[in-house]
Amino acid sequence: MPKTENLLAIDIGSSHVRAVMAQSVVGEDALRVLGAVSMPSEGMRRGSVVDPDAVAKTVEKAVEHAERMAGSPARVVGLSVSGTDIFCQKAFGVVAVGRSDGEVAEGDVERVIEEVESRVMLPANREVLHVIPKSYRLDDQTNIKDPIGMRGVRLEAEAFVIGTSMRQMKGLARISEAVGLTPTLHAVEPILAAEAVLNPKQKELGVVLIDIGGSTTSVIVYEEGELVHMSVLPVGGMHITNDIAIGLRTSIETAEEVKLKYGTATPSEVGKREEVDLASLDPHETESVSRYHVAEIIEARMDEIFRLVNEELRKSEREGMLPAGAVLCGGGSLLPGAVDLAKATLRLPSHIGYPKPLGGILDRVDGPDFASAVGLALLLEERSHSGKGGIGRFNVGGNAKVPEWVEHSGKKAKEWLRKFLPME
Fold first, then answer.
1. Angstrom distance (rounded) from CA 411 to CA 413
2. Residue 285, domain extent
3. How far is CA 293 from the centre of its chain?
4. Least confident of 120-129, 258-267, 339-348
5. Average pLDDT over residues 91-96
6. pLDDT tens, position by position, 129-158
7. 193 CA to centre of own chain
8. pTM: predicted TM-score of the whole model, two decimal places
9. Predicted confidence band at 119 (pLDDT cuts at 50, 70, 90)?
10. Do the beta carbons of residue 19 and residue 10 sit within 8 Å?
11. Where would you tag: which of 91, 164, 383, 413 has the fewest CB atoms within 10 A of its CB?
């Protein structure tokens, strides 16, 4: 690996495209941020690509901006995968240990993970992106985290299989082709946000990360250091804006400004006589509205989001039982009062999560809205440091094998990059 390597992480969300150009420098612990940009996105609906050409134009502008800030092009590119098409389900696999002396080797672990992927029953229109082992079993020994070096005959694995729809991946491939990018990594946003925001202690104690995006809210739960549950809810910050627009009978643009400048999720902190002069935000408006009424609208929608999150915790049997509490990230987490409402609804300690400290122009990427982009940059760095030509080991919340494909100029051509080994 060269002494320095430019990594480009592109997070394509429902409301914004965020690009982070970072430099991996040998001898430095933290990535060095060289450029970062956030631009409003078009052509997305609930995190899914509906108009690849429109998204490609935004991605192209974001990439050009990030590379101009960095002063050099990227060598390694990664794309986030978002949307309600993301799925997560458990699967099992079993293989015979290959060596005559019964010692489990890396090849055995690789084979059992491939067996897990082959056994999972999925519709033909779904694509597997991650296979994350939960635990291994070797003969009668259970709950093994790393079986390499142990001796036995029968190796079993329980894992989470995570992926998305073929439609979403084809949309991302068209965007990459239009912009002239060749991504070497695709990863789902909930895992990326967790990589950037959560620390090992939180994952060990038990924590839920709630990433409130433009049109979706992703939920990912960890306990005892392992992934427990993951889902994507079809509601986010833009639904709050829509509610305000309907409630105030104003435009979406004005409603968004009202939300950002005067919005809060806690009406009790707003005086009932406080007014918002819409004319100061939009010359076509002539009325003033109650700020307390705006807060009530916001509270109702945010409460719905957290109640849906609580339902996911109930499904995973973790409702009110996560000592490390709830960590909020994404643009929606910045809404005043969101943390207090999360505490009340989820009955858990709650706070806003910020990405891990990086070097360079840190002020560009230190907000919770850049969590997924930073997480993708961190995974790109770890992959680069594997020293295996881009196929190596990296942690995505446990031991992981992450196959991903890249479409080139041919519309139907696919190149599968497999054989990710689990973390030791």
1. 6
2. 238-299
3. 33
4. 120-129
5. 94
6. 999 999 999 999 999 999 999 999 999 999
7. 4
8. 0.87
9. confident
10. yes
11. 413
Asked whether the beta carbons of 8 and 21 are under 8 A apart, the reply is: yes
Q: How far is the C-alpha of 146 from the C-alpha of 161, rounded, in Å? A: 18
Tell me whether residue 207 is in a domain.
yes
Are residues 263 and 292 both part of a single domain? yes
Residue 418: pLDDT over 50: no
Is residue 145 in some structural domain? yes
Q: Between helices 291-315 and 252-262, what is the axis angle to 10°?
A: 90
Question: Is residue 118 pLDDT above 90, yes or no?
Answer: no
126-138, strands of its sheet edge to edge: 87-96, 154-165, 126-138, 141-144
The two tokens of residue 147 are 């079986």
Is 423 domain-assigned? Answer: no
Tally the domains of the chain: 4
For residue 209, count other CB atoms closer than 10 A to its CB: 28
In a domain, 294, yes or no: yes
3-state SS of the chain is: CCCEEEEEEEEECCCEEEEEEEEEECCCCCCEEEEEEEEECCCEECCEECCHHHHHHHHHHHHHHHHHHHCCCCCEEEEEECCCCCEEEEEEEEEECCCCCCECCHHHHHHHHHHHHHHCCCCCCEEEEEEEEEEEEECCEEEECCCCCCECCEEEEEEEEEEEEHHHHHHHHHHHHHHCCCCCEEEEHHHHHHHHHCCHHHHHHCEEEEEECCCCEEEEEEECCEEEEEEEECCCHHHHHHHHHHHHCCCHHHHHHHHHHHCCCCHHHCCCCCEEEHHHCCCCCCCEEEHHHHHHHHHHHHHHHHHHHHHHHHHCCCCCCCCCCEEEECHHHHCCCHHHHHHHHHCCCEEECCCCCCEECHHHCCCHHHHHHHHHHHHHHHHHCCCCCCCCCCCCCCCCECCEEECCCCCCCCEEECCCCCCC
